[in-house]
Amino acid sequence: KINSERLWNTLHETCEWGAEHRYGEKPTDTGMARLALNDDDARVRRWFAAEVQKLGCSLSVDQMGNMFARQSGRLNSAAPMIAMGSHLDTQPRGGRYDGILGIMAALEVLRTMKESGFQTDYDVGVVNWTNEEGARFPKSMCSSGVWAGAIPIQQAWDLRDIHDPSVTLRSELERHGYLGGIACSSDPATGYPLGAHFELHIEQGPILPENNKSIGVVRGAQGYRWLTMTVHGRDAHTGTTPFSARQDPLLASSRMIAASHDIAKRHDALASTGIIRVPSNASTNTVSSQVTFTLDIRHPQDSVVHAVQDKCLNAFEAIALQDGKGVSFDWTLDTDSPAVKFDDNCVASIQAAADQLVGREKSMLMTSGAGHDTVYTSKHCPSAMIFVPCRDGVSHHPTEHCSPQDCALGTQALLEAVVHYDQF
Amino acid sequence: KINSERLWNTLHETCEWGAEHRYGEKPTDTGMARLALNDDDARVRRWFAAEVQKLGCSLSVDQMGNMFARQSGRLNSAAPMIAMGSHLDTQPRGGRYDGILGIMAALEVLRTMKESGFQTDYDVGVVNWTNEEGARFPKSMCSSGVWAGAIPIQQAWDLRDIHDPSVTLRSELERHGYLGGIACSSDPATGYPLGAHFELHIEQGPILPENNKSIGVVRGAQGYRWLTMTVHGRDAHTGTTPFSARQDPLLASSRMIAASHDIAKRHDALASTGIIRVPSNASTNTVSSQVTFTLDIRHPQDSVVHAVQDKCLNAFEAIALQDGKGVSFDWTLDTDSPAVKFDDNCVASIQAAADQLVGREKSMLMTSGAGHDTVYTSKHCPSAMIFVPCRDGVSHHPTEHCSPQDCALGTQALLEAVVHYDQF
Ligand SMILES: NC(=O)NCCC(=O)O
Ligand SMILES: NC(=O)NCCC(=O)O
């Protein structure tokens, strides 16, 4: 049985590195700004390295700075370890649980096993994946992506700090001594293969709390495609130009955003616009010449993602002709992340753990709405995830909160699932 | 009869001060960037002062730098002069005709009268209104507004250069020696009253060309109200947050913009959004926390402007509740410019000139879509405007164009209207 007080204290103690954005009176009432490979991230990495070595783990660092801590199993088998992975980096206005809980839970599992003298049959360990957030070096799940062969390492190394282009991800790895010697790969010959990957994470959404469940058994992640639309019109005076003579890209974009929502809703999918931009010299009495906006389409089935995209583009073509003299538009595909189905055996191990801890009524099978490192690991080893609720579904925000009880429950489930899978 | 070649050459020669944004091969194929009270505006002002003095005019400058050139009439009456006014400043990406044509035409009228030995009964003259565009010091029709008592002079003096807040309108008036001694007012005791105000301007819209007319007899200006809407929601992950749990201000704003257009259209009014902004840290996979957008509502009748505003706000309230958990919104009124009806006698003088020059079929009575200095002068002296077509209705753009024929025709109409009004 894990030590929930030790888990809670360790988590908040290590959040001293990077604490920001105070919102309340209590010492822990702050968010985090521990951006990947900044000085605080380097500090928590050094602390993590020392802790796992105290437990007798071996530690390997690969060429993306991913940290692999390994505890030998009873059988002294050469098989790749069963990993519990997540990330220690945060958003610039992030919270104390996203990623961090996953690592602290994994460490608590190792501490509990050591303390109680329990040994798994096969090797088990913890992975800290570098730059999961993509908030400082703009590519999310960047280093699990390189490990999985989905992102070329040179492209990842060359990512520039979004505020200081003179700094690259590689230059920061070098500065902190985290450019390891092992290839960032699942290849047994040169890299660091994993036998399985389990990740505990806060849900970051409202489904668990709304359904009054305490554990999410995550069987996959939905697919998503990110488009940037550019709508072209013509500047015109808002006072002197009749509607019939206009080519108004902001009116058209507005209709497109509303239409994309309505289409997605009819398909039980999601379509969201987070960014819209008019030229910086826009003015109240000028019809804009151009508008860009983003479109993020998601659904657990790729075929539905594609159908929603197609219907949106068809609707946009009709909208482009609808008002005045019409507008034109073009678009780019910025991200294409197909749906992922996690490993049945990993999911079964998590379900078994959940059944034992809370019973069927308090857990639910679900699909992750967001991408996670486990989405990439699942391409090269059996993988699955455990979700625990976070307050009001709020995440990527300083007030992000996961109760001590839910942190402990998720960590116990992680332990049971790993033990179950080890037996299996 | 005015000299159309002299008019054309003078206009383009003086556009050497401030020419920018070349778009073609011909020497005159550029736009203008002669922002109010910059060095080029000061140069063209000095040129204008010298030209009117050569014609024997007296020149007065008021405390807003408005320039009043006055030619004595035959009767040596003490009555205020009949003014032909417009402005020499331009937009930062403006054209060669907006405002400039009105001043050059007025000067050509004086030159023609002088050359042909023609004298009006009453004094006539030209007014160059300072900072009509409001592009550098952000208040349009700023100095005719002070003259009309609608804008306090201190507020106008304190306007700051939008790019360099250390510079004010008053400091630039002082630097160029254009802070005159006369009060900026229509008060006969301290200021510079006018007997009438005629303004020739390009239409800046497509109505004249689309109706194949060459002169617009402008009998008033439509009313307009500028609102800024702020829609409040809550940041949320686009992948993990179901529609039902969202408060999405960008979706709501999109529906509001589309609704405002549709409502205005049903009322034969205009409603336009030129600016929309999301926070600078917006991202593709985050529902924005807040959105602001502008709304510009226009109609020749104030009651319709108000009705459209009311219907929009009602519709916005329904939209705010429509999706997910709903959003809230608030708004500010930034500009309230009621509709203006010009003076019947001034309009009749312009109509008489148009009838004589092109006949009834080639002129049309119309309402100005945009605000002009004449909107303010009309509050304190009989006023009206003449519109001539500009190519494709394009204005506030480097390629803005008015043909030599239309420039000449408008100038001739200005001369005839002033003579007609003088007789009247
Ligand atoms: N967890 C997370 O925010 N991943 C980034 C990619 C996504 O938007 O799903
Ligand atoms: N002519 C002009 O652009 N005036 C500014 C105010 C308006 O938008 O009507």
Automatic annotation (TrEMBL), chains A, B:
Tree of life domain: Eukaryota
Q: Which GO terms describe its molecular function?
A: hydrolase activity, acting on carbon-nitrogen (but not peptide) bonds, in linear amidines
Residue limits of the Peptidase M20 dimerisation domain?
220-321
Give the InterPro entries listed for this entry: Amidase_Cbmase (IPR010158), Bact_exopeptidase_dim_dom (IPR036264), Peptidase_M20 (IPR002933), Peptidase_M20_dimer (IPR011650)
Alphabetic keyword roster: Hydrolase
Q: Which SUPFAM superfamilies match?
A: Bacterial exopeptidase dimerisation domain (SSF55031), Zn-dependent exopeptidases (SSF53187)
Which protein family is named in the record? Answer: Belongs to the peptidase M20A family.
Name of the protein described by the UniProt record: Peptidase M20 dimerisation domain-containing protein
Identify the species of origin: Penicillium nalgiovense
